[in-house]
Design goal:
Chain lengths: 115, 855
């Protein structure tokens, strides 16, 4: 990895990571590694997750009741935890998304006033 | 959930490794990349755990552990800080307990805020009239305590009889523990002989018998039926009494007399009335009584005061001054504590700044500093509580008799709370100092300073200077206060009481009314007793109605022969004392003019009297008292003229700090007042052997085995008791002043030693450049001199402003006594210079090479 490449990647802010996890789980239950992969893939590797930080975030979301988990068998019969969005988490995601949209729109207006 | 974390993480890394291998990496490389991408496993695990744990609690425990470790690492600092607080808080709690018990807690009666007392005693007929007329009072009653002999036990004893009306116990609102109290129907002339006994009497003489009702007790030869027992907690407001009987039944002669003002009266205010309204109404009633009964009530002027105020009245100034003193000591202790914490703050400043530079949040730093200082305050508070317990029992051991209510004092929860609040607040307020300073510090600047500091940090230096200066000022105020009290006390002690108390023993006797109702019988007993006592080898005995400092005296109005007549009721009053035997010789009261009584001045002979010098000053300033004639204003029948035959020296009868009253001495044998059946023996023995009291009692009982003996005291003891309150005040304030002096000296020494230590480097340079030891000494001492000057100047200003508050406690000493002020200022200046000299000497011996390397 070159320095240039690293500079382009933005370190995830804590709150953002939470929203990204919720967004990923909207597609369906997934285990930890899959969530990390999905976030990296969907953001074209620009948003680089230090994968370990996924776990405090997952536990935080469980504590708040936004996601739940269950033990399940994954491919090649390995046991793993599957995380699932709860209805409460779904509402939270909706709220966060609209907030984010407003913020993004506002910033966009400021940066490109002439349109 | 958490228990699976390891497995989850392992699983995650394995999947990533597999993905990497699938992308074509070598297995070794693939695993390495996966681990790197995952990040710090340990930190992740910790962060995840934190999601679920009470982080703040763990951090708090961590801070407390760290705090304890820091405190253990510097035992000197810890010990001084805890001791400082313990002394301040301990003294505070002990005094607060006493003040709480005496001043703040109301008297132990029902709705005590409604209770009112008349400052003047009154007679039963007046009490009855007031009860009928006053609208402001719902209830009222009076008591007079009189000794009587109780002959139910093995030897006759003197007990205290509360002669009351039915309203007395009712007004105080205390229910009897057993039985009932005397009802209004029984409180009449010729009523049944009923008695209500106190708890101690019930215990001592009735064997705590629950069936004691209807038992008979023999008082002064009369049989009374017990109808009630008061609870252990009940004590009459002023004087204690063993048995309560109706005044109409126990002493009908006095009950009927309107002019005999001998009852303490208590009144219960109706809720709708104020004290001022009651006082106003009382003035109207006074007027009515004066018009109706001019002979007895002409000069009537009744003052009402709340019972609470009445009870604590004369100890209040002393207690308030002590409270002030304690507050000042706490102030000094806190200033010391603060200054100790500041010193530490500067020592630990580097550490704080580095922590801040490494990203420690301010909140976290504040919490850490607070934990440490609150820890110290709580430890200090706990140690203070031990001091307080010890101090309270010490105060109780020192208490004068007069502060009788002190016996009910113990440390209660309010006191405990008070201590905890004071100690924790101290910690919080002064614990903020280090963080406050660190938070304001410029990190870069502070880190640079860590290298070498040539001069001590100015801001901390000046704050400590202010603390030490104010400590000094406060200590000076306390020392001046104590000094004034000590000076007043020594004046008081060197006061001549007017007699020689050494080797004089006193004993109170009362002749039973049944067998000694007439004066000749009394005189015969007295004469025979004195003859027998004076026959004992080395013993000189005499008797007087009321011994000086014994707390009692009787006043009579009198008329001087040949003077213009005075309106009835407006005659001057003098103290009257009857004596027998060579009283003036025994007490060594000097004869100033004329002659002493002789054995010939007896019944059937011309009536004679001896007066004191005050009487001469007051009534015979322009004529020779010798040969003048006086008589008592209320004599029955024709006046009994007494000729003044001698003048004796003044005696401090009511207390060494009280003015001398005019007094008239007459021979017992010429008395016509049969009710004065009591007497106090004054016995001077060559050596007061302990067997003397027993020998005297043997002589009394060989004359009459049924005579109770009480109040056996050495005269010296009576003097000591009369000085007790002053001694108590002086001792306590002296104790605080000593405490303040020690704390202030420690504080000043600490600050000076620290300042000198900070300047070691500077001193090294100066010495290397050729400064002499004397110059170094001057450098260090100059700081001390400045503090001494400012501290003493502001202390004197403070003391001048405050000492007038204690004027009422001082005996013949002005609150601005220059000698005391100067002495205290010199003492403190000496203490400051001594506290500076030790660190200064150490600084002089500094080896410049060591100092230059020193940080």
């Amino acid at each position: 990895m070159s320095t240039k490449e690293q500079a382009d990647r933005i370190e995830l802010l804590q709150g953002t990571l939470d929203v990204l996890i919720l967004r990923t789980l909207l597609l369906g239950p997934a285990h930890g590694h899959a969530i990390a992969k999905a976030i990296e893939f969907n953001s074209d590797d620009v948003l680089q997750v230090e994968q370990g930080s996924l776990y405090p975030a997952l536990h935080r979301l469980i504590k708040r009741g936004w996601i739940s988990f269950e033990d399940g068998a994954s491919e090649n019969n390995r046991r793993a935890k599957f995380y699932r969005l709860t209805p409460k988490g779904r509402r939270q995601l909706a709220a966060e998304t609209s907030k984010w949209d407003k913020l993004a729109a506002a910033i966009a207006r400021i940066l490109r006033p002439a349109g | 959930m958490l228990e699976d974390l390891d497995r989850d993480i392992r699983d995650h890394i394995e999947r990533e490794t597999e993905d990497n291998i699938a992308l074509g990496m070598a297995p070794e490389e693939a695993r390495y990349a996966a681990v790197r991408k995952f990040g710090n496993v340990t930190r992740m695990k910790e962060e995840t755990r934190e999601v679920w744990s009470f982080v703040w609690l763990e951090q708090l425990l961590q801070d407390i552990r760290l705090g304890f470790r820091m405190l253990r690492k510097s035992p000197g600092f810890t010990a001084v800080a805890i001791l400082t607080l313990a002394l301040g808080i301990g003294a505070n709690t002990a005094i607060f307990s006493v003040i709480n018990g005496v001043l703040l807690s109301p008297p132990p009666y029902k709705n005590p805020q409604q209770l009112i007392v008349m400052k003047q005693n009154d007679s039963l007929p007046n009490v009855t009239d007031i009860q009928k007329q006053a609208q402001a009072f719902s209830q009222g009653g009076g008591i007079n305590v009189m000794p009587m002999e109780y002959t139910g036990g093995t030897e006759p004893v003197q007990v205290r009889i509360g002669l009351v009306n039915a309203g007395f116990l009712e007004t105080l609102g205390v229910q009897p523990m057993l039985g009932r109290i005397i009802s209004p129907g029984e409180d009449v002339r010729g009523g049944p002989r009923f008695a209500v006994v106190s708890y101690p009497f019930w215990q001592t003489y009735l064997g705590s018998d629950p069936q004691a009702m209807n038992k008979e007790v023999l008082l002064d030869g009369n049989s009374y039926t017990v109808i009630g027992v008061m609870p252990a907690s009940f004590v009459p407001p002023v004087e204690h009494a063993d048995v309560f009987v109706s005044l109409w039944v126990g002493y009908p002669g006095a009950a009927a007399y309107r002019g005999v003002h001998f009852m303490h009266t208590y009144w219960r205010l109706k809720p709708s009335f104020t004290l001022a309204q009651a006082q106003q109404e009382m003035a109207t009633i006074d007027h009515w009584l004066a018009e109706r009964y001019p002979a007895e009530e002409k000069e009537r002027k009744t003052h009402l005061v709340s019972l609470h105020e009445w009870l604590v009245g004369d100890v209040r100034p002393a207690l308030l001054v002590l409270f002030g003193a304690v507050g000042l000591v706490l102030l000094i202790a806190c200033a010391n504590f603060a200054s100790l914490l500041m010193v530490r703050a500067f020592a630990g400043r580097q550490e704080l700044v580095i922590r801040a530079a490494l990203g420690a949040g301010r909140g976290r730093l504040i919490r850490k500093a607070l934990t440490e200082s609150v820890l110290l305050s709580v430890l200090g508070g706990a140690a203070g509580l031990l001091f307080a317990q010890w101090g309270t029992s010490m105060l109780l051991a020192l208490k004068p008799e007069k502060l009788a209510r002190l016996s009910g004092i113990h440390m209660d929860t309010r006191v405990l709370l008070f201590v905890l609040v004071v100690s924790v607040l101290t910690g919080i307020v002064f614990g903020m100092a280090p963080v406050w300073i660190a938070a304001r510090a410029d990190v870069a600047e502070a880190l640079k300073e860590s290298g070498r500091s040539t001069t001590a940090s100015t801001r901390g230096h000046s704050i400590r200077g202010i603390l030490v200066t104010s400590e000094l000022a406060v200590a000076l105020v306390l020392l001046v206060g104590a000094g004034l009290l000590i000076k007043g006390f020594s004046r008081l002690r060197s006061m001549n009481p007017g007699f020689n108390s050494a080797n004089v023993m006193t004993m109170y006797l009362q002749l039973p009314a049944t067998r000694y109702g007439e004066i000749p019988k009394q005189t015969q007993f007295r004469r025979e007793l004195l003859t027998r006592l004076n026959f004992l080898p080395g013993v000189q005995a005499a008797m007087v109605t009321d011994i000086p400092l014994g707390g009692n005296y009787v006043d009579h109005s009198f008329v001087i022969d040949g003077r213009p007549p005075v309106a009835v009721g407006a005659e001057p009053e003098v103290q009257t004392l009857s004596v027998m035997g060579n009283y003036f010789q025994v007490m060594q009261i000097p004869l100033r003019a004329g002659r002493d009584f002789t054995a010939l001045d007896r019944e059937g002979q011309p009536l004679v009297a001896i007066v004191n010098e005050q009487m001469v000053r007051e009534f015979f300033s322009r004529e020779n008292p010798l040969g003048a004639r006086i008589h008592w204003a209320r004599d029955e029948g024709p006046p009994h003229w007494m000729t003044i035959i001698g003048v004796v020296g003044d005696v401090k009868h009511s207390g060494l700090n009280q003015p001398t009253d005019s007094a008239v001495y007459t021979p017992f044998s010429q008395s016509d007042e049969a009710w004065r059946r009591f007497m106090t023996l004054a016995i001077r023995a060559r050596d007061a052997s302990p067997g003397l009291v027993e020998e005297v009692k043997r002589q009394i009982w060989s004359l009459d085995g049924q005579i109770p003996v009480g109040d056996v005291h050495a005269m010296d003891e009576l003097i000591a008791v009369s000085l007790a309150q002053q001694r108590f005040n002086m001792l306590l304030l002296g104790l605080f002043a000593a405490l303040a002096l020690i704390l202030a000296a420690v504080g000043i020494y600490g600050a000076m030693a620290y300042a000198a230590n900070q300047r070691t480097h500077e001193i090294g340079i100066r010495t290397a450049l050729g400064a002499q030891r004397r110059d170094v000494l001057r450098l260090v001492m100059r700081d001390g001199a400045r503090i001494a000057l400012f501290g003493i100047a502001s202390g004197i200003a403070g003391a001048l402003a405050l000492t007038h508050l204690m004027a009422s406690l001082l005996f013949e000493v002005k609150p601005t006594d220059p000698a005391t002020f100067a002495g205290v200022a010199i003492l403190l200046a000496f203490v400051v210079l001594a506290a500076c000299y030790i660190p200064a000497r150490r600084a002089m011996r500094v080896d410049p090479m060591v100092a230059l390397r020193y940080e």
